[in-house]
Structures are given as C-alpha cells and as structure tokens.
Design brief:
It holds the Pfam family Glyco_transf_34. One of its GO terms (molecular function) is glycosyltransferase activity. One of its GO terms (biological process) is protein N-linked glycosylation. Keywords: Glycosyltransferase, Membrane, Transferase, Transmembrane, Transmembrane helix. The protein starts with a helix and ends with a helix. Strand 8 (about 225-230) and strand 9 form a beta hairpin. The chain has helices at about 1-50, 145-160, 180-190, 210-215, 245-255, 265-270, 270-280, 295-300, 325-340; strands spanning about 60, 95-100, 105, 120-125, 165-170, 195-200, 205, 225-230, 235-245, 290-295, 300, 315-320. Helix content is about 35%, strand content about 15%. It folds into two domains: about 1-50; about 60-70 and about 120-340, Spore Coat Polysaccharide Biosynthesis Protein SpsA, Chain A (Alpha-Beta Complex), CATH 3.90.550. By secondary structure, the protein is α/β, with parallel strands linked by helices. The chain has a seven-stranded mixed β-sheet, sandwiched between helices.
Length: about 350
C-alpha cells in the first residue's frame, strides 16, 4: 500500500511538471509578443525621434516659485538658469557662449543661428502625474497619446529645420495648477530663440507643407510679440507664438504675477490663459500693444463648435474641452483617411 501511494505521488507530481513547463514557454512567448508589438515601438520612436536627431528634450524637477522677481536688463539675462540641463544648440552641439545680440546662442560650430532665418522652437510642456505614472483611463492623456503628439511635432520641426523641445515637468506645487509651468518653460527657453511656438499636448500639426515663416510670421508686424487666436470664448493659448523681445519677457512676468490670483475669470479651468487674458484686457503695463490676433483657422482649428471647425489643409487641429482626446485624434485620422495622410508630418 505504501509503494502504491509512493508511485501515485510520483505520477501526480510528474504530470504537472511537464504542463508547467509548457505554460511557462507560452507565457514567455506572450510577454515577448506584447513587448515587440506594444512596448518596442515607443522605445524606438523616443530614441530615434527625440534623441538621435536635432531635437532635444528636457526634464525639470522643481517647484514653481511664489513670485519671480527678475530684473530684465536685456533679453539674454531674462531667463534664470535657462536650460542648465539641456543642450540648446542644433544637432547636439555644445553651447560655448551667449551674447546680448537679440539673445542668440553661439554654438560649437561658431554660428549663431546657421543662417539669417529666424531661430524657431516648438515647445510642448507635459506635467508628469503624481508618482510619474501616466494614467490609463481613456478620458485622460495617456502615454501613447503624448508620444504620438511629440512625434507629430518632431517630424514637422525636423522637416522645416526648427527645434522641437518637449518638456516633462515633475510638478510639485500643491496649490498651483500645473499648466503654469508653461510660462516658466518659455521664460527659460525664449532667450535662445527668435520665436517660440507653444502648443498644448492635444494640438497636432495637420499640414506639414506650411512653414511658420510663410504661414504666420510674415504677417506679424515688427512691433508685435504675441500671436494668438480667439475662439468662441476668448483668447485660447493652446497654440500661440511669442517673439524674443524685452516686452515679451515683461509680458511673461506680468502673466506669472497673476498665478495665484484666484479671482481671475475661469482661473480654475483656464489657468495661465486666464492671466494672459487679464493682462491684455486690462492693458497691464501697456502690454496690449504687443498682441497680434490672427484668424483661428491659421493656428488653432477645433473639432468642436467653438469658432473655426477644422478642415483639410488647416495647419493645426486642437482638442480643447474634449474628454477623450486620443479618441478624438483617432476619429480625425479615420475620417480624414488618405487625403489627410498626404498632409501629416
């Protein structure tokens, strides 16, 4: 009886061992397949499109100050600790000096800008979620959507020889909405460019053939430094251009001075946009003179009925007020089909 029991135990133990080995092999194959299909494309995209080419990215890990008491003696000095952890020269060149000549940067190749063209950067700021873990809820911005947005802008910037600066900001201030980091990011980077085009992460380029110089800048008078469009509500800062001028830095400082003014109209949902509207509406420090309004279709088309509705050939599509932004972008791609693909970066 004992020997039979011993044999039965061996039989019962030997059978699962083979099954377990088969299960582990299947599990290993499944994990590998998931990595190849879902993870590797993002690794490849980030390494290729954000690191190996002329684009650069920045990760900031600090708190926004209560108030920025900065004296702007000239354009170049306007940015405290400007991008200390980022290379601001094209193609990874080392910055060797900064001059006061309009805030230009001299790079290792000895050129200021490489040409007489305006030096332009595209900037998008993403506030890292708590714990640096991106949400998976479809109504939130997911990591895949952010990377898709970054690649869209990088390809456009690379095509036209602009810099693309995606910024991940580890926001820590519990009392200040993260969107205010956009103002500080511009203050840090604007000294190194003639123009910055700042867009939210839910705005995509939809016409790669349009250059910023020809489509936007050539229509801007020389005394204007802030280019933005109106929607059905007021100014919308999901897509705007700002010029490197002393007045622009005074404007940024005036905007940030309102960062804790909770009495601003729609402060709790419009954030820095409320402050920008306030500065212009009340002509603080006479700064309304730098404002240049352009048609919404030029830089900030929507997919909702609040001004200009996006059409094929429009420069930008923006998804403000839409909960499922990734789904809205996917819907546009599906509806636009091959015709839209001809214009995407």
């Amino acid at each position: 009886h004992g020997r039979c029991k011993y044999v039965r135990v061996n039989c019962e133990c030997n059978l699962p061992v083979g099954s377990m080995g088969k299960f582990l092999r299947i599990l290993q194959f499944a994990v590998l397949a998931i990595f190849v299909i879902f993870v590797w494309p993002y690794v490849f995209i980030v390494s290729r499109d954000l690191l190996l080419h002329k684009g650069h990215h920045c990760i900031y890990d600090d708190e926004l100050p209560e108030r920025r008491n900065i004296t702007f003696t000239n354009v170049t000095s306007a940015s405290p600790a400007a991008s200390l952890n980022c290379s601001l020269c094209a193609n990874g060149q080392e910055k060797i000096s900064t001059t006061g000549e309009g805030g230009h940067v001299t790079c290792a190749d000895g050129k200021k800008d490489g040409s007489n063209r305006p030096r332009i950067a595209l900037i998008t700021v993403v506030i890292l979620p708590k714990g640096n873990h991106f949400v998976t809820d479809h109504t939130q911005l997911r990591f895949g959507h952010i990377m898709e947005n970054f690649v869209n802008k990088f390809k456009y910037a690379h095509r036209h020889n602009y810099d693309f600066v995606p910024i991940f900001w580890n926001f820590k201030d519990p009392d200040l909405p993260g969107a205010w980091a956009k103002v500080i990011a511009i203050q840090r980077h604007l000294p190194h460019y003639d123009w910055i085009w700042c867009t939210d992460v839910d705005a995509f380029v939809t016409n790669r053939h349009l250059s910023i110089e020809e489509h936007v800048l050539k229509h801007v008078p020389p005394d204007k430094a802030f280019v933005v469009a109106r929607d059905c509500n007021h100014l919308n800062t999901g897509s705007f251009f700002i010029r490197n001028t002393p007045a622009a830095f005074r404007f940024l400082d005036a905007v940030y001075a309102q960062s804790r003014n909770t009495s601003l109209y729609h402060y709790d949902i419009w954030y820095e946009q409320s402050a920008i509207i306030h500065v212009f509406d009340h002509d603080i420090e006479g700064l309304t003179s730098i404002l240049h309004l352009v048609p919404q279709q030029m830089i900030n088309s929507y997919r909702i009925n609040c001004g200009h509705m996006w059409q094929l050939h429009d420069f930008v599509v923006h998804f403000p007020g839409q909960d499922n932004k990734q789904g809205a972008w996917a819907d546009l791609l599906r509806e636009g089909g091959a015709a839209l693909l001809e214009f995407l970066p």
